[in-house]
Specification:
14% strand, alpha+beta, 278 residues
Length: 278
């Protein structure tokens, strides 16, 4: 039995539903029967619930406390390839406030009631007792992971777990436009030094719409899909000056709807420009 499976079984015994993550901290892709949502439901499900597939499909919904499922032959390949272990906070009656940088940690210490904390690579997880809808980028450097989400297992942490405060619940009820307003876009848009190949404005608009669709339909590897899509858009439309902030905002909105943070979007856009020498 490998270390990741041993960790998962310990978590399951304590009431935390675990699941394996592959390299890049992302879940395993759906099995052939569930690929492209062929099974009819899990990626677009509207309410929390376990996955009904015998393999570790559908991201957070695969998390389970059933040791027979975790040790089943269908899950064995995933555990052999796993890079780390995650868990479904909502399935254990918990909410994780993911603080992604020192500034976010400082904000939490000044704003939120003390609770159990777990150090992360760049910040901390603050864990509260109670569940709520999950939401990314509720404020700079802060994500909420509870229902229909997963969080990496980084250890038990320190301190007593406090009840979920209203201050955290209030973060998730802010209008989406407040968190993702296009006017906050600060990424550089190419100033245009090449020949325009768009022929008509419709050509560019169709290209942006296709890029939005590609991101929206991603079922796994969302980070990689967003980067490749940004790279394709910039390669085709980025050198003549026709690409505007409004076009880029549409791409960012599509990516954030899939769970990407504004920072991840900015990094992907910047990396794509760098790769193309822009």
């Amino acid at each position: 039995m490998n270390d990741h499976l041993s960790t998962a079984l310990r978590l399951a015994a304590s009431g935390l539903p675990p699941l394996p993550l592959r390299k890049g901290k992302v879940p395993f892709g759906n099995c052939p029967a569930c690929a492209r949502n062929g099974c009819g439901g899990r990626p677009n499900m509207k309410t929390p619930g376990p996955c009904i597939c015998p393999q570790p499909c559908h991201g957070w919904a695969a998390a389970t406390t059933n040791p027979h499922v975790l040790t089943s032959p269908a899950w064995a390949p995933a555990w052999r390839q796993a890079a780390t272990v995650a868990y479904h906070p909502g399935g254990a009656g918990l909410t994780v406030v993911d603080l992604d940088d020192p500034a976010a940690v400082q904000w939490a210490r000044a704003t939120l009631p003390a609770t159990r904390t777990v150090p992360t690579t760049r910040g901390e997880h603050w864990i509260y007792r109670g569940t709520m809808p999950s939401s990314n980028a509720v404020r700079p450097g802060v994500d909420i992971k509870s229902l229909m989400a997963y969080a990496r297992w980084l250890g038990p942490g320190n301190g007593a777990t406090a009840a979920l405060p209203h201050a955290v619940r209030a973060l998730a009820v802010k209008p989406a436009a407040t968190r993702r307003a296009p006017q906050t876009l600060t990424v550089p848009v190419p100033d245009g030094q090449g020949e325009c190949r768009h022929r008509t404005p419709t050509y560019l608009d169709r290209g942006i719409a296709m890029a939005e669709q590609r991101i929206t339909e991603a079922r796994s590897a969302v980070h990689a899909t967003v980067y490749r899509t940004f790279l394709a858009v910039l390669s085709t439309h980025g050198r003549c000056g026709c690409l505007t902030d409004a076009h880029v905002a549409r791409l960012f909105t599509a990516a954030q709807t899939k769970g990407e943070t504004p920072r991840h979007c900015t990094d992907a856009w910047t990396n794509a420009r760098t790769a193309l020498g822009m």
